Amino acid sequence: MMEAKPLPESPDDISTFHIQATESIQQRWPRTLKQGDTFALFDALGDCIAPDLTPGGIFFNDTRYLSGLQLLVDGQRPVLLSSAVENDNVVLNVDLSNPDIYKDGQLVLPREILHIRRSKFLWDGTCHERLAIHNFDARSVKFWLTINFAADFADLFEIRGITRARRGEITSAVIGNAKSIFRYVGLDDVERRSEVGFDPPPSKLSKNQAVYVLELQPGEQTAILVAVRCTNSSRPRPEQAGGFSESYRAARRGAQHAANLGGTVASTNELANKMLHRAGADLSMLVTDTPQGPYPYAGTPWFSTPFGRDGLITALEMLWLDPDLARGVLKYLAANQATAPDKRSDAEPGKILHETRACEMAVLGEVPFGHYYGSVDSTPLFVLLAARYHERTGDDETLRAIWPNIEAALAWIDTYGDRDGDGFVEYYRLSETGLTNQGWKDSSDSIMHADGALATGPIALCEVQAYVYAAKKEGAALAAALGYLSRAVELGKAAEKLRIAFEQAFWIEELGTYALALDGDKKPCKVRASNAGQVLFCGIASPERATRLAATLMMPEMFSGWGVRTLSADAPRFNPMSYHNGSVWPHDNALIALGLARYGRKRAASAIFEGLFDAAAHMEMMRFPELFCGFPRRRGTAPTLYPVACAPQAWASVVPFALLQACLGLELCHAIGEIHFNNPQLPKFLEDIAINGLALGEARVNLRLRRRGANTEVAIVSRTGDIAIKITQ
């Protein structure tokens, strides 16, 4: 048996990789752009003036290529008029004006004479910006426009608070009269370059500043183009990048292509439409093309990279509407599945990726996340997604291609995942620098006993056993569909054996819930936590206990009014401002709602949808963040934001679609060509919705659903191909 690292016994033993909350991301950096492997965070004026440990700037492959960008009019910051990212997330538009400008005590430029419009977007590793300046005065105006810029090439993990003993060297130079270049040669011998180009050339250009001396006649307009190009010698790209107009058209086309979900959902409720549109636009922005297909990067700023768990859950939440995303996730994770043991990266044969990073610290091994496998749940979720994807699509070709990967994942579950042979999958930390807790609640203090004492490993989480059960039970159906009949029987028996053992070991009668986990001594962690809600999502709970658990989840200690908390308010470690011990995570609530609906608890599922919808109404752009604080809902107050939450984040972005599926009891089965609505119940804020272009194989259907009192009617507007609609009450 391989030795496992115990979990910490004290809250002082925290993870090396926690994110320091030095300021609120949403307050300091409210404008986010992402395209491919590039993302950018700007303030409301379109600048990024990034002190240490703040994530503003332009990033490429988890490295900050531009840490400073500031626009000045005669040495002063402009006045903000408006600032917003367009609905499709492609362009950030910022409208500015000049303040009162004085020289030698005399007013030389009254405020609001100049209108400056900044339009910024990302394409192919370059941040393009157009500055349009318009003189609205009745006289000519002369002024200086200054653009300050800087590059620190900080690794994202440095920004998260990790101190490095050594770094590479930064040099800079001015090329001609229109380009300034920053060059960083890292300790990994990779050259990273930021090229800041200007068109037309400025009046004066230095390594960190461009100055334009402008004179505009009454009503005259002029434009300046700025391009920040990020290059990396380990991933070379063509020397010549496209200009502003060409790149703008390409970015628009790319966004339109990414937005082509398998179907669309619209409502007669304007706010609900806004929420649904934002969800789709954010997912489109986060999805990145890989050689294996589309993959949803987890979220900006901290997780703009492929994460196994996040990608799998995002694909599960979107499977009914967009199965193509699931295919891309499955193929990418199969291609990056571990094939050999590696203690440094917590890798074992058959294990599915936790995350991958391309930054310098990851390449050098200063952090273990180059290809890191410290996730106990990604592997069973991979099998579960494969089974549900096949049920949804009947895609034999893809499933046969990755069947060896599925078998390798199942082998990991039964060997490395269950080293002590008790039938439960536990996590062990083999890497001294890896994650302490390796479930979705990976904070170092997130697994505890009823007295608040932290559990020691190896840890068997309740939801992980449910994932394994579903992986084996639904994997049995997949094996049978592919003709592996004996394997199907074997997996079915293993699933039932696990179900019986789980009920005996995890149910806590006095709490009306399943234990959060079993610790290394097989003692249950007797606390009420949202993890038990995810058990329902996988169907391992008996109907009687599911009814008890549903009531527990909706208790005031668990349900804040905005959503289900990660930890009950009566637990010793409850803190509504914590990352995992009392906060509300939208994706967690979506899985819980799907589980509640599975057991017929539609009223509870609707309550979760209604609470989260009301929460979204208070959030900018109706965008669900990664999490928010778990304070109780009070009349006339908004939910409290968590300061360093990612927004957008993939598995939070798709929550409205998952919650809609839960309330409608929606299931799609390719084998029988049927879309099934099981006791559909639209929540109170939705009276009428249209689902258009819903595909099942080659068939398509447009549907309209209307709430009539306690019932919801489903009507077929049009359909093409052989597709059946079944409705049960």
Q: Main sheet: which strands, in order across?
A: 7-8-11-12-19-16-15-14
Uncertain stretches of 5 or more adjacent residues: 1-15
Largest sheet: 8 strands, antiparallel
Percentage of residues in DSSP E strands: 25-35%
Q: What is the average per-residue confidence, as pLDDT, rounded to a whole number?
A: 93
Strand count: 34
Globally, the shape reads globular
Supply Rg: 27 Å
Class from secondary-structure proportions: alpha+beta
Give a description of the structure.
Mean pLDDT is 93; it is low at 1-15. Helix 8 (378-393) packs antiparallel against helix 9. With 729 residues, this protein is an alpha+beta fold. The protein contains 17 helices and 34 strands.
Short description:
The chain is of the alpha+beta class and 729 residues long. Helices cover 29% and strands 26% of the residues.
What layout of secondary structure does this protein have?
Layout: H1 25-28, E1 31-35, E2 38-42, E3 48-49, E4 57-60, E5 63-66, E6 68-73, E7 79-85, E8 92-97, E9 101-103, E10 106-109, E11 114-123, E12 126-135, E13 141-150, H2 156-159, E14 169-175, E15 179-185, E16 191-199, E17 204-205, E18 209-216, E19 221-232, H3 244-258, E20 264-267, H4 270-286, E21 287-290, E22 293-296, H5 308-318, H6 323-335, E23 355-356, H7 360-364, E24 371-372, H8 378-393, H9 396-414, E25 460-461, H10 462-481, H11 485-506, E26 507-508, E27 513-514, E28 517-518, H12 531-538, H13 543-553, H14 586-598, H15 602-617, H16 650-653, H17 655-664, E29 666-669, E30 674-678, E31 688-696, E32 699-708, E33 711-720, E34 724-728
Parallel strand pairs: 30-34
Antiparallel strand pairs: 1-2, 2-4, 3-6, 4-5, 6-13, 7-8, 8-11, 9-10, 11-12, 12-19, 13-18, 14-15, 15-16, 16-19, 17-18, 20-31, 21-22, 23-24, 25-28, 26-27, 29-30, 31-32, 32-33
Helix pairs in contact: 5-6, 5-8, 6-8, 6-9, 8-9, 8-10, 10-11, 10-12, 12-14, 14-15, 14-17, 15-17
